[in-house]
UniProtKB/TrEMBL annotation:
UniProt region (Disordered), positions on chain: 1-24
Species in which this protein is naturally found: Malonomonas rubra DSM 5091
Membrane-spanning ranges: 48-67, 87-106, 141-158
Keywords of this entry: Membrane, Transmembrane, Transmembrane helix
Protein name: Uncharacterized protein
Domain of life, source organism: Bacteria
């Protein structure tokens, strides 16, 4: 037994790789890493990824027209729905939504290119427009909502164009 232990000890002390992982690591060269660098490059979204942003901008143009026609809700609508929520609450809800949605966009892993999340963002932003309009403050907060919407839609488009790859163990 003693001679076999000396042989194993002699092999581990030598510079020869003894395990499969060490052999694989020794065989790698710069070409093995070339494909991963190219796949990590950020590519700009095309028309397919920017459809939701274009839709959002068209909705904003429609909102500008409707603000001129209906700057505030009518008295009958106010009597029917009741008092508007305080503006501070709407601002807090909007900022919480922006923060959480940005985290979700950047942490989401995608296996296929889907418009589902962009449509959800559009619907929620439309509800924020309605809340600000009902509170009578849409004209003052229009630029804020436009900026939030464009930032969310652009981040969603970049995220859809450059999906995160799932890490698998080899």
């Amino acid at each position: 037994m003693a001679p076999q232990k000396k042989q194993k000890l002699h092999k581990s002390e030598s510079n020869e790789p003894s395990s499969f992982i060490q052999e694989k690591a020794a065989r790698r060269n710069w070409r093995d890493f070339q494909g991963t660098e190219q796949s990590r490059r950020i590519s700009f979204p095309g028309f397919y990824e920017l459809k939701s942003l274009i839709t959002f901008l068209i909705l904003n143009i429609g909102t500008l027209v409707l603000i001129d026609v209906y700057p505030q809700p009518s008295a009958e609508l106010r009597n029917l729905l009741g008092m508007a929520p305080p503006l501070l609450w709407i601002n807090i809800a909007c900022s919480i939504y922006l923060f959480t949605e940005l985290i979700l966009v950047f942490c989401r892993e995608r296996s296929k290119n889907s418009d589902r999340f962009a449509i959800k963002q559009l619907l929620f932003l439309c509800s924020m427009y309605v809340f600000y309009w009902y509170a009578g403050a849409l004209q003052q907060h229009f630029a804020l909502l436009l900026g939030i919407g464009v930032a969310l839609q652009l981040s969603e488009a970049f995220s859809r164009k450059n999906p995160r790859q799932k890490i698998t163990a080899e």
